[in-house]
Design brief:
11 helices, mainly alpha, about 0% strand, Growth Hormone, Chain: A, single chain
């Protein structure tokens, strides 16, 4: 009886140990993918699976705890969620926040970004236990599943790709961004960036991945090239800052 009780008491300890190890181990692939594939790519590739594994965890929690499958399934969903988190939402936000601010304000901007991130984590620590007591574990995970969907949409429309700007890359590849091009990317307004995703990327993805059209290019037109053309159309007779930079 004593041995069985001790074994049950040790389960949370082993599970917590596994969570920590998984978080570290699963973060290593991001070290290579964050430059070769891109920050935005990692977020868009992992967020859907993070949402799916979170939803799966919510459904598993509906199973009676007395079931033999309860603990293994909880552990499986948790580790799969950590895999997705450690590849995307774990390392990428800090990398992106270190690049989006102008150089003269980067220190202050990065400090503010870290503050917001950790402040949000602190709020979750304070509110999630009470929320769990009020509505239950499955409902809480259901909320986080919905937030993953919202975050995917926000990333798709508003997050810029900056991969390759610090280390370079192969010219012409989808992830290559020179330091000069980085200026073009952030020169484009947020509104026009969202418009580009809606009018250019979504139709291209539909034709390329769904319809499999043979005459569809391997990648959509570059953001700043497309935005430059739109600026030229809207401000006829004026040379946009992007065009002026490229001609110089």
């Amino acid at each position: 009886m004593t041995s069985k009780t001790t074994s049950n008491d040790a389960k949370p300890l082993w599970f917590s140990w596994g969570v920590g190890i998984a978080n570290v181990v699963f973060a290593f692939p991001a070290y290579w993918l964050i430059e070769s594939k891109g920050r935005r790519w990692l977020l868009l590739a992992t967020l859907p699976f993070l949402g799916i594994t979170t939803l799966a965890g919510a459904l598993v929690l509906i199973i009676p705890p007395s079931s033999a499958a309860y603990d293994p399934l909880i552990a499986l969903c948790s580790y799969l969620s950590l895999l997705c988190y450690s590849l995307g939402l774990g390392p990428v936000p800090f990398t992106v926040s270190a690049e989006v601010f102008p150089l003269e304000h980067r220190v202050v901007g990065m400090s503010f970004a870290v503050f917001i991130n950790l402040f949000g984590a602190g709020l979750l620590t304070l509110t999630v236990p009470a929320l769990t007591v009020a509505i239950g574990h499955p409902s809480v995970l259901g909320i986080f599943t919905g937030l993953n969907v919202v975050l995917f949409v926000l990333v798709f429309f508003f997050v810029r790709e900056t991969a390759g700007a610090s280390l370079g890359g192969i010219p012409g590849s989808m992830t290559f961004v020179s330091l000069e091009e980085l200026n073009y990317i952030f020169e484009v307004s947020t509104k026009m960036h969202a418009e580009y995703q809606l009018k250019k990327v979504l139709p291209w993805a539909w034709k390329y991945y769904v319809l499999r059209e043979k005459d569809c290019p391997d990648q959509p037109e570059k953001l700043y090239t497309w935005a430059s053309a739109r600026v030229g159309e809207r401000e006829l007779g004026k040379v946009s800052p992007v065009d002026h930079e490229r001609e110089a």
